[in-house]
Glutamine transport ATP-binding protein GlnQ (Neobacillus rhizosphaerae), 241 residues
Amino acid sequence: MSGNEIIKIKDLRKSFGETEVLKGINLSVSKGEVVVIIGGSGSGKSTLLRCINRLEPFTSGSIFYNQQDILQTEMVRNEIGMVFQQFNLFKHKTVLENITLAPIHVLKRIKEETVKEAMELLKKVGIEEKADVYPSKLSGGQSQRVAIARALAMKPQVMLFDEPTSALDPVLVGEVLWVIKKLAEEGMTMVVVTHEMGFAREVADRVVFFDNGIIVEEGKPQEIFNAPKSERLKQFLRRIS
Ligand code: ADP
Ligand code: MG
C-alpha cells in the first residue's frame, strides 16, 4: 500500500435488505487528490460516502484510512469531514455557534480559540459578517458555506461532499463551488459527488463514474468527458448534456 494513499476501499459491498446497492467497490484516494464521483440517481454514491465516514455500516469488504481499518479507529469521524446536500445547520444556534460546537464539545478545545478560528473560517468562505445571525436568515449558498466552515473547524484530513449544490438556486451554486475549488487549490483531499460537470472538468484530478453500485469507468476529466469508453457512461453524458 502506497504511503500517499489516505483512503483505500477494498471490495466494498452494502445491502439494504435484499437489495445490494454497493456491489464491490475498489477505490483509493491519495493525499491532496480531488476525486469527483458522477453517476445517476440511486447508483450508490451517497451510500459510499456514508460508509467512508462510518455513518453507514457495510456488509463486507474494508475501508482503510491512513492504513488503519476504519472500523478499528475512532478518528475517522473527526478527521473526515462531510458536507451534505441539505446543510443540516443547527437552527437554534448562531452561525458562530454552529461552527464552534464540535471543536468545543468533541475536541475539548478552549472556546476563545475556537471562536478565533471560526471567524477565520468565515472569512475564508466569504461571510464573516454573518457570524451572529441564525441559519433562518441565510440564503442557501450562505448556509452551505457555513456548513463547509463547520466541517473545516474540525481540521479534517479529508472532506467528503455529497451533492453540495443540488439544493441551491442556480444563481447560488457558483459561490459554493468557488469555496470548494479554493480548498482544492490549497491541497485538501476531497471526494465530491456532483452533477456539476463544468466543476468536475475543472477541479477533479480523477473522475469516477458510478452506475448501479459499481464503478464502471474512472480517469482524468478529459478521458471521462472527451473519450468515454463504456456505453453506460456515453449514455449518462448524453442524458445530462
Ligand atoms: P445516490 O446517492 O447515487 O443517488 P444512494 O446511495 O442514495 O444513491 O442510494 C442507492 C440505493 O440505495 C437506492 O436504490 C436507494 O433507494 C437505496 N437506499 C439508500 N439508503 C437506503 C436506506 N436507508 N434504506 C433502504 N434503501 C436505501
Ligand atoms: Mg445521493
